[in-house]
Design brief:
Blueprint lengths: L5 E5 L4 H17 L3 E5 L23 E2 L7 H4 L25 H4 L7 E5 L5
Parallel strand pairs: 1-2, 1-4, 2-3
């Protein structure tokens, strides 16, 4: 798995907000050829594994809903944290009127990126 790029979607908000952000995260992961980790377990409102409720069928997306397939050294300070700990709802980082999801979420050329929130239409 060396050299793989990972995007971690941290669940936020209610169901529609959460799924809206996930939908945009899926699009971005496909665009950047990244493996998407769907972390709904750290979001207490969702409170479970994504695959217990939903399935994504796509030949363009590789995803997991846990951290078992990511090198531990990449996620040791990430997997147990909530989206707020990465800047979600921080008014200095996130402009809620900005509709450019990926600019708000600091997608870099790095090996690991954290995504959260919902695309504002």
């Amino acid at each position: 798995m060396d050299g793989e790029k990972y995007f971690i979607y941290k669940g936020t908000g209610g169901l529609f907000h959460n799924l809206g952000g996930l939908s945009e995260s899926i699009r971005i992961a496909i665009e950047h050829n990244a493996i998407l980790i769907i972390d709904m377990q750290s979001h207490r409102i969702f409170g479970g594994k994504f695959s217990d409720y939903f399935t994504i069928t796509s030949d363009k997306l590789k995803y997991y809903d846990d951290y078992e397939n990511i090198p531990p050294e990449l996620i040791e300070d990430i997997k147990d944290k909530h989206a707020k700990q990465f800047g979600y709802l921080n008014k200095e980082i996130l402009n809620p009127t900005d509709s450019k999801f990926k600019e708000n979420y600091n997608i870099t050329q790095g090996q690991l990126n954290i995504l959260y929130g919902c695309k504002m239409y």
